[in-house]
Amino acid sequence: MSNDIRVQIRAEMQAVFPEHEALVAEFYGMQEYHLGWRNRNLQTESADPGKLLRPIMTLLAAQIVGGDVRHALPLAAGIQLLHDFSLIHDDIQDNSDLRRGRQTLWSIWGIAQGINAGDGMFVLAHMAIQRMYDVGVPAERVLDVLRRFDRAILQICEGQHLDMKFEGDCSISQSAYIAMVTRKTAVLVASCGELGALAGGGTDADANALAEFGLHLGIAFQMQDDILGIWGDPAVTGKPLAADLARRKLSLPVIHALAHESADGVLHQLYITPVGDDRLIDAAIQVMNQSGAEQAVTELVESHYQRAYAALSRVTVVNHDAYAQLHALANGLLGRKV
Fold it and tell me: What residues are paired with 102 via a beta bridge?
């Protein structure tokens, strides 16, 4: 999609922010900082907003079934705001100081204000979707979208619960991990397809097919992230080699390798060693390589891509250009290096 669509998505997100008194300007300014619209002094700037894959996918899903982009733009804005709300809270729960190369919201304004700013963005996401009614989407369809949206959010919260629960547990199974990332990551991508189709006036069958497409695409996307977290080229990713090992992140390749190593092995020893002590990293990378973890996870990635494409093929296509763009978007994520 063109840069013009990205500008429209941002404009729709900005339109949700209400007029407010100067007394609460900082509350909204913090949220705009997180979105890349302001610097830490709350002066206007334009920082990297990320790939905007989710709102773009939402708009393409609406177009594929013959819908009007104007009807889906409020939904696209709401989905991106929801995603950013989750990142604000993730950064707090993960104690992360950086996001997209900038200081995280909470690390500047504190945990309590960070939680409150995230809560505000959660509400703005819903207000964005309510704007669908203002651009001509029937009220009953807007209500259906909001119901499904909230159901997805609850699953995302389930996924975050599992992610925190699994932290440091080297006995986590592959199936438990996939159940977690399905909820935490893939469900929102599935919602882009499902809700985008509904916003575009598509049938339930088309919405279900696009939801399945998004679900498998989201799972594959996270698995590809896991591969890059171990074997990504630092010159491309901007992160150290095996960054996930340094963070002691229990990603899918690590879970695979742990399952193929004894409890007193190098990888197990690394994961009970405090973060910051990297003496075992090189040996752990060798264990990862010997376990066949990269190939095993790569095969799973390809399997989920194939399932995504199979679901996409079931959609009744009205706009073939949008279909080609969505297919190309998925292709571009397969085997990505960053």
Answer: 99
Give the H or E element holding residue 319: none
Tell me the longest C-alpha to C-alpha distance in the chain.
Answer: 62
Q: Is 4 left (phi over 0), alpha (psi -120 to 50) or beta?
A: alpha
289 Cα distance to chain centroid? 27
Q: Kindly report the pTM of this predicted structure.
A: 0.94
Alpha carbon 105 to chain centroid, angstroms: 18
Number of domains in the chain: 1
Q: Would you say the C-alpha torsion 211, 212, 214, 218 has a positive or negative sign? A: positive
CATH number for 55: 1.10.600.10
Three-state SS at 44: strand
CA-atom Rg of the chain in angstroms = 21
- Per-residue tokens: 38: 């302001």
What are residue 103's DSSP bridge partners?
98
Q: Hey, how many other C-beta atoms are within 10 angstroms of the C-beta on 148?
A: 16
* Number of alpha carbons in the 13 Å side-chain half-sphere of residue 107: 14
- Domain residues for 43? 3-333
Q: Which residue in the block uniquely carries the two structure tokens 């619960």?
A: 161
Local structure of 330: helix, strand or coil: helix
List pLDDT tens digits, range 231-276.
999 988 888 889 999 999 999 999 999 999 999 999 999 999 999 9
State how far the Cα of 149 lies from the Cα of 297, in Å rounded to an integer.
30
Residue 198: name the closest of 131, 149, 128, 135 by CA: 149
What span, in angstroms and rounded, lies between the C-alpha atoms of 79 and 82? 5
> Is 338 inside any structural domain?
no
